[in-house]
Design a protein that fits this description.
Elements: E1 4-5, H1 8-30, E2 35-41, H2 45-61, E3 64-70, H3 76-88, E4 94-97, H4 107-112, H5 125-133, H6 141-152, E5 161-165, H7 172-180, E6 185-189, H8 191-196, H9 199-203, E7 208-211, E8 229-232, E9 236-238, E10 241-243, H10 248-254, E11 257-258, H11 265-284
Parallel strand pairs: 1-11, 2-3, 2-4, 5-6, 5-7, 7-8, 8-11
Antiparallel strand pairs: 9-10
Helix pairs in contact: 1-11, 2-11, 6-7, 6-11
Bound molecules: nicotinamide-adenine-dinucleotide.
């Protein structure tokens, strides 16, 4: 058996089609245009790629996109001051701060200074609290992207066994809560699981497997449970090629559904960011 591919691009395309129509009708209803402001401190090649993709996708949907590039030597206080101005600006619906930030700038403090209602990435502690409470308004984008891919399989989630490898704040931790909210029995593995040598035994139980580590091939294809849904969040460059964290060729012979890398989670993450901007716009306009 060879797994069906969960193509992020196709799923993102459908969501974007819906968002485009919704934005058009929101503009007519309010006379306003949703706007995302992206803050970049200094220059960074990796974030330049993300910014280009965010801008193109936003503008295609009818969301205004403004990039503010600030001086690399800017102090933490001055950066927070800029964010506070955007918090007050009624024309701004969403704010994203591009990482990495310069050394000495506390990124958690910076993220927390974004007004929760304008937090396009869904990483403000208040928004993370809503994810925990099961009434998320703006949730972390990559975790939402993984959830969309899992749900696109059409498999009933209630009571299923999920294993997430990776417990970062942007992926593993919030995704574990999104899955728990759907009554999925969820195990979260991390570095200590790997060091203890028990990663294979956890992975082998997974009917839903999500891997977000950032180490090529850390999950072996023969660990994958027959019929599993496999979501590979990892992005690694090996010999000039992008690969995920799961041994794809072997895993696809055992899984029922699997995401390709590239083309799985990536295209959906930016779509989730823009969906958050639309949700923020609706919250601000009490729609
Ligand atoms: P991170 O470095 O913050 O977290 C890595 C996680 O892996 C940690 O929980 C760590 O404990 C765990 N880990 C490390 N070694 C391990 C081992 N040997 N066994 C088990 N667990 C181990 O990473 P992140 O920011 O969550 O990103 C993870 C990967 O996902 C990266 O490749 C990143 O590029 C990718 N990513 C992709 C997208 C996307 O849109 N496609 C978005 C975010 C991150």
């Amino acid at each position: 058996m060879s797994a069906k591919l969960l193509e992020g691009k196709t799923i993102a395309g459908k969501i974007k089609e819906g968002l485009k129509k919704e934005i058009e009708s929101l503009k007519q209803k309010t006379g306003k245009t949703p706007k995302l402001v992206s803050i970049q401190v200094g220059e960074n090649a990796a974030s330049a790629v993300y910014i280009k993709s965010q801008k193109k996708n936003a503008e295609n949907l009818g969301i205004e996109y403004e990039l503010k590039t600030l001086d690399a030597g800017m102090t933490e206080d001055a950066l927070i001051g800029e964010i506070q101005k955007l918090n007050q600006d009624k024309s701004v619906s969403g704010i994203i701060v591009q990482l990495p930030l310069p050394k000495g700038v506390d990124h958690k403090l910076v993220m927390s200074s974004i007004a929760p209602g304008k937090d396009a990435e869904g990483m403000h502690p208040e928004n993370l609290g809503h994810v925990l409470l099961g009434d998320a308004k703006l949730a972390p984008c990559t975790a939402q992207a993984a959830m969309e891919l899992i749900e696109s399989s059409g498999v009933k989630l209630y009571g299923k066994e999920a294993v997430i490898v990776g417990h970062s704040e942007i992926v593993g931790k919030p995704l574990s809560l999104l899955l728990l909210n759907k009554f999925v029995t969820t195990t979260v593995c991390h570095i200590a699981t790997g060091e203890r040598g028990v990663l294979p035994e956890h992975v082998k139980k997974a009917e839903i497997l999500v891997v977000a580590v950032g180490k090529a091939g850390i999950v072996k294809g023969d660990w994958v449970k027959e019929g599993a849904i496999v979501i590979d969040v990892g992005i690694n460059r090996v010999d000039g090629k992008l690969v995920g964290d799961v041994e794809f060729e072997k895993a696809k012979e055992k899984a029922e559904f699997i995401t390709p890398v590239p083309g799985g989670v990536g295209p959906l993450t930016v779509t989730m960011l823009l969906r958050n901007v639309v949700s923020a716009f609706k919250l601000q306009n009490k729609i």
